[in-house]
Structure formats: structure tokens, C-alpha cells
Amino acid sequence: MYATLAATPGENRPLLPWGLALIVLAVVPLALRNAHPVPVAAVSASATTVYYPLDHPDGAVIVAGAIALYTAVARGYRWQGWLLGLTQFLIVHIWEAVAAGAPRLEYAAGMFAWMLVVLVAGEVARKRVEYNAEQRARREEAEHAREEELRRRGADERVRLAREVHDVIAHNISLINVQAGTALYLMDSEPERAREALSTIKTASKETLQELRSTLGTLRSADERAPRSPTPGVDRIPELVERTRATGADVELRSEGGPRRLGAHTDAATYRIVQESLTNAVRHSGATAVDVRIRYEEAALTIEIEDNGQGAPDGVVPGNGIAGMRERAAALGGELHAAPAKEGGFRVRARLPDNGSEDT
């Protein structure tokens, strides 16, 4: 292909059959250059290189070799393209030197410049293709990461909602069940106590509805989100204790270290852990006495709930309540242990880190 630069202007050379065959051999394979860039470049460049030493007239055949080499480099076959180009340059330059009887540096420089233009253009195209592919891969990776994050958040939110609904329903429904049985039993013999039990049922059912509305309100979209009542915290634990006492259990609440403002998540987790523990004491162990201790430490909170009930075999309590409590503690970087006490009954102990920040 570079031989055109070395041709003598004005020559009118005939096209021989071999020349026509070489033109066909250089041009036709270009149709497959994208699928097989290196073989096509080798065939087309070789045909172009052989074409000129046979002293055929100049023509568009020079373009075929250039396109083939450009495509090979642009498709990522760099060293093959450069090797073919340099080999072609050397062959044509040697042929020109032999034909002229001496090296012709001006033609060599022109041929070399032409080769560089073709191969560098291929490099530029390759870089652009690689850059676009890299950007596309980054966008796909970012999109995949966003989808994974959304799935993870969705899974975490479902677990959180399941835990919240369990905590709300399990405690209050257990309380309602106990008080309903008490009301039925005392309705004829002690109507006043039956009335108290029904009043407790009304209060518990109202609170259940309020907390369910608050929990289910998180399922709303951001534009439809309605105001919800705040999640109960440590300040509501005395109410829990009073409602549990209404079932007939003797519940003692003690606080050590003085109450202080807790982080929102620690505050809510403390309430839910005490709530679930009282529910298990009344519902599963048949406890008649429960001791609740909350100890405030410098950067942590310790919660201990111990009852005198039967406990559960091997410490296994039906349902997901204890698992939910452990998840709450772990989510804050804390820990929770729940097991039968050696002296009888059941003990729950949780330690939650807290720095008093609302973002804890």
C-alpha cells in the first residue's frame, strides 16, 4: 500500500490479470474484518504489498490495506497490527531501494508517516472503544450496586417491620387474652374486678391499634407519609409494668445510675426488649413475679429481666420474640442473652451501647 508514494507520476501502467486477482484478494476479505480482524489484515496487507512490486498501476487498493490494519489495531490486536504494518513498510522500502538502486529516504519517510497515521488512528479508535466500554461497565456496576442496596434495605425493612409488628401484637394480645379470661371468670362473682379487666383490655387494644398504625405507616411512600406517633421508649416502661401487673403478676421495676436521655434507637430497643420479656414471662413461663432492672452506665445501658416461672425446655421459647430481641441488640452493636436461670425461672440480659445521640 505504501508503494503508491514511491510510484513515478504520470506512468500509465496496464493492469494485468494477476493485479486484478490481488485487488480482489485485498478488498473482498474486508467484509469479514470485524469478525476476523487479524487474518483479514494479514491477507489484505500481504496482497497490497505484493501488488506494487509487480508494477501494476496505482489505485484504490491502497485503501484496502489501510482499512485492514486500522481495524486490527482498533479492535485491540495492537501488536499484530503494528507488526504487519512495520513488516509491510520494510518490504516495500527494500523493494523500492532495490528497484531504484539506492535507498530513497524521502519516499521512506513518506511511507513511514502514512503507516503511522493509519496505525495511530487505530490506536485512538481502540482507546475510545475501551473508554466507552469501561464507562458502560462502571454504570452497570453502579446500577447493580444500587439494586443490591435497595434489595438489602428492603430485606432489612421487612425484618424490622416483622419485629415491630411481633412486639406490638404479642405483648398486647397476650395481655388482652389474660384479662379477657379474668373478666369472664369474675363477671358474676366480682363484677368490679371484671370491669377493671375490661378497662385494661380497652387500653391495651387502643395502644395496639396506635402502634400498628405507626408501624404500618412506614410502608407509605415518601410523598404519602402521614404523621405517626413516636416509637415508645424507656419513659413508657412504667406503663408496661402496670399493665403486666394487671394480669396478676408481681412486677418490680428498678433503675440504677439515674435516667438520662438515650439515643432514639437505644431508647426504642430498651422498651421492646422489656416488652417482649414481660410478654414471655406472662405468656410462656406462667411467672407470678418479675424483676426488671435497668442500669445506666457511662456509654451503655444494661437491661436485666428475671422471672420465677417455669421457663421453657432448653431455653427455647416459641415464636420469634427472643430472636427479634437479639437482632435489636446486635443492630446497635450490643448483645443479648436469654436462658433459664440456675435457681429457676428465666433470665434475659442485654447490654446496649449508647452515647446519648439521637443518631445512635
Automatic annotation (TrEMBL):
Example of a GO cellular component annotation carried by this entry: membrane
CDD domains, A to Z: HATPase_UhpB-NarQ-NarX-like
Enzyme Commission code(s) on record: 2.7.13.3
UniProtKB keywords: ATP-binding, Kinase, Membrane, Nucleotide-binding, Phosphoprotein, Transferase, Transmembrane, Transmembrane helix, Two-component regulatory system
Pfam families to which the protein is assigned, alphabetical: HATPase_c, HisKA_3
Catalysis: reaction(s): ATP + protein L-histidine = ADP + protein N-phospho-L-histidine
Any GO MF annotation of the entry: ATP binding
Domain Histidine kinase/HSP90-like ATPase: 265-356
Stretches that traverse the bilayer: 15-32, 82-101
Protein name (Swiss-Prot/TrEMBL): histidine kinase
The organism's taxonomic lineage, starting at the top: Bacteria, Bacillati, Actinomycetota, Actinomycetes, Streptosporangiales
